[in-house]
Structures are given as C-alpha cells and as structure tokens.
C-alpha cells in the first residue's frame, strides 16, 4: 500500500516514524511519502517538506507566517493528489491536518486515519464536526479519550501510549545501572533531584531559574538538568552560572531511572516521570498568573494540565502553574515528597494504577494493524 503521512513537529516525527516502522513489518510493499522529519526519513520513503518549515505555534507566529502556511497547504494538497495514496495518515497538528483531511475526503475520497487525537477535550471541541465528516478512524493514545469521544457520538480506538513503548524499550534494551550513570556523568552519591524544564527556549528561560533556586535549598540532593534535544549547552550555562547543578543530554530516561524526586514542566515529561515511578511536582511558569487561571477555569474543559492527572481524573501530582508557581510552593511540595510519611508512596501507588490504565506496550503496532488493509485498496 501507498501511505501519505503528515507530522508537523518533532514529537509527531517520532511517533510517525514508529508507526511507519510498524507498517513496514505488516506490509512488505509499503511505500511512504510524507511531510515530517529526520526520524521518518530514516525509516524510508520520500520527505516532501521538513517540519521545521511548518512548525508555527501560537497566534502571532501563525499570523506572521500565514502566507507560508497557506503555501504549504496548497503544495500538500497537490502532492497528495498526484501521489494517489491508499491511505492518508495525519499525526496530531490539527490546525493544518484537519484542513487536509477535508480535502482528501471531499476531493479524493481516500481513507483518512488520524494518529494521536487533537486535544479537543481541552478546548476547541467544535473540531468534532470536522473529525466526524473527514476522519475515517481516530487512533488515540490516551485511555480517557475513548469515553470522551463516545460522549460526542464518535467511536475511536485506543491503541496504547507511545511513552509506554519508549520506556519499556529503554528498560529492556539498555538500562543503565546507578553506578555507571553517576560515573559517566561525574555525579556524586547524593540522591538526584531531576530538573525537566521543557523543550523550548522560552520554557527553559521561564522555568529553569526558579527550579535551580529551589534546588539550592536542598544541599542533601544533587540537581541534574535534563538537556532538551536541539538546545545549545550555552543556553543552560547562562542559568547555571549562579547555581551548582549537573546536566545530561540525550539521557533523560537514565536520569529519571535514578532520580529521587523531579521538578517537571507539563507535557509528555510528566507521564514519562510517572512511568519511572519518580515522585514529582509539575511546575510551569506563565505571566499574569491570576489571569491565566481565570482563562483556564473559564474557557478550558479540563480540570488539570498534566497528563498524569488527566488520565487518572484526579490530582496525583501537584500542579504549580499560573498564580501557584512560586519558589515557596515548589519547596513546600518537595518537602512533602521527601519528609511527609506516606506522601511519596501514595503518589507511586497512583502511578501503578496509571500504568495499568495505559496498558501494555505496542501503540504503533496496534495502530498499524488498524490501518493496513491488504484487501482494501
């Protein structure tokens, strides 16, 4: 079969590459053409446009690059028309992908699969109209999404979560012992306080200084920063000059595997930290914190921002964002984790239930099974 995939950012490139590899296992004749990144290209096929030329996030960047976005969309439609794939697979990136889905269904009549649902459960629920009309099958990676979509009268498939796959692969293939990790990264024997300050420059600038300031109050711990891919070490050095801390690059899983406690910005990192059963506090700075909380409560359809709490539908980890983001509040939460009897253990018990809800590894393989139709050309 011929597959056309669209992934508009780094995380989509990763998940799409794993799906492509799984499709190749099931479909020996698989041919790929895609808008994506280096990881997808490594699997094989034709890269039409790199996500670096597509990844505009936020109102102002989208507005400033509107002409480029429209040009990319026009080029993508024409490229799909000429390629005539047996299936179009869209990976997250809803602002772009849902418009492509409309074209594929209305103009070409080709099957549309969506891998990793847009977060319409958080906001923009109106997008369900386009999903119903233009998406043949939605393949979800969060277990609560099946009930959410059922409430909107739209059936979806939960295929598992890619983070479960990634952590499982790491632990089975190359887990690093504590001694080896500490020795290779020149760390001391002190328990590790992991600092996961985000993957974008602005997130790091907003969160890391406060994380480092908090860490300085715990001489019995050694803070270690998880360096994000694509971020220059010099950026971290700017914030580390006044604080003693280690830093590791491309070893986040090894860091989490051997950490006592973690400070984590919201996102996939909160879920990965839970999969390693590390007690954590979710810390995310936003300007005008009180306004942000008002907007969150008024316009969003969710109670939490972290994947851990969203999946469990209760507060498992403390979310310190907006008006609650402060050095004092973060220190108070670390104190509870370290010193309050049973507090950290209860968090880990909830992690165990979370892991059960997420299910066994194999998200990409399960998705490939639903997409590959050998007799459905």
Structure description:
The protein is of the alpha/beta class and 377 residues long. The protein has 2 domains: 2-160 and 362-371, Rossmann fold; 166-358, Rossmann fold. The chain contains 18 helices and 13 strands. It has helices at 10-26, 38-43, 59-64, 66-83, 94-108, 128-134, 145-151, 162-173, 178-184, 201-215, 233-240, 252-257, 268-275, 289-299, 307-312, 327-339, 343-358, 363-371, and strands spanning 2-7, 31-36, 46-50, 87-91, 112-115, 137-140, 157-158, 192-196, 222-227, 246-249, 259-264, 280-284, 318-321. Helix 1 packs across helix 18 (363-371), helix 4 runs parallel beside helix 5 and helix 10 crosses helix 16 (327-339). It is globular. Mean pLDDT is 90; it is low at 56-65.
End-to-end C-alpha gap: 8 Å
Question: What general form does the structure show?
Answer: globular
Radius of gyration: 21 Å
Largest sheet: 7 strands, parallel
| Alpha-beta content class | alpha/beta
**Share in helix:** 40-55%
Number of extended strands: 13
| CATH 4th-level superfamily of the largest domain | Glycogen Phosphorylase B
Outline the fold blueprint.
Layout: E1 2-7, H1 10-26, E2 31-36, H2 38-43, E3 46-50, H3 59-64, H4 66-83, E4 87-91, H5 94-108, E5 112-115, H6 128-134, E6 137-140, H7 145-151, E7 157-158, H8 162-173, H9 178-184, E8 192-196, H10 201-215, E9 222-227, H11 233-240, E10 246-249, H12 252-257, E11 259-264, H13 268-275, E12 280-284, H14 289-299, H15 307-312, E13 318-321, H16 327-339, H17 343-358, H18 363-371
Parallel strand pairs: 1-2, 1-4, 2-3, 4-5, 5-6, 6-7, 8-9, 8-11, 9-10, 11-12, 12-13
Helix pairs in contact: 1-18, 4-5, 5-6, 10-11, 10-16
């Amino acid at each position: 079969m011929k597959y056309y995939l669209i992934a508009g950012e780094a995380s989509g490139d990763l998940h799409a590459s794993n799906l492509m590899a799984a499709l190749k296992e099931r479909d020996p004749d698989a041919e790929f053409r895609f808008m994506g990144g280096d990881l997808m290209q490594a699997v094989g096929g034709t890269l039409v446009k790199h996500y670096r030329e597509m990844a505009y996030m936020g109102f102002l960047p989208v507005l400033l690059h509107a002409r480029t976005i429209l040009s990319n969309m026009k080029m993508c439609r024409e490229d799909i028309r000429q390629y005539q794939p047996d299936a179009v697979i869209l990976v997250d990136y809803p602002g772009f992908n849902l418009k492509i889905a409309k074209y594929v269904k209305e103009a070409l009549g080709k099957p549309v699969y969506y891998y990793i649902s847009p977060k319409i459960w958080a906001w923009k629920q109106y997008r369900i109209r386009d999903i119903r009309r233009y998406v043949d099958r939605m393949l979800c990676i969060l277990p609560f999404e099946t009930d959410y979509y059922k409430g909107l009268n739209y059936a979806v498939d939960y295929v598992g979560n890619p983070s479960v796959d990634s952590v499982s692969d790491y632990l089975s293939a190359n887990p690093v012992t504590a001694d080896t990790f500490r020795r290779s990264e020149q760390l001391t024997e002190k328990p590790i306080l992991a600092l996961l300050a985000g993957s974008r420059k602005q997130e790091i600038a907003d969160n890391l200084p406060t994380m480092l300031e908090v860490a300085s109050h715990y001489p019995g711990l050694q803070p270690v920063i998880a360096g994000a891919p694509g971020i220059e070490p010099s950026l971290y050095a700017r914030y580390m000059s006044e604080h003693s801390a280690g830093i590791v690059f491309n070893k986040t899983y090894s860091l989490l595997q051997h950490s006592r406690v973690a400070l984590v910005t919201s996102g996939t990192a909160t879920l990965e930290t839970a999969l390693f059963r590390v007690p954590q506090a979710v810390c995310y700075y936003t300007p005008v914190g009180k306004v942000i909380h008002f907007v969150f409560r008024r316009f969003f359809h969710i109670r939490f921002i972290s994947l851990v709490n969203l999946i469990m539908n209760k507060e498992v980890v403390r979310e310190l964002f907006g008006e609650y983001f402060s050095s004092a509040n973060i220190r108070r939460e670390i104190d509870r984790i370290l010193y309050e009897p049973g507090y950290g253990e209860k968090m880990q018990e909830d992690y165990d239930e979370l892991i059960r809800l997420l299910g066994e590894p194999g998200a990409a393989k399960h998705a490939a099974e639903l997409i590959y139709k050998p007799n459905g050309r």
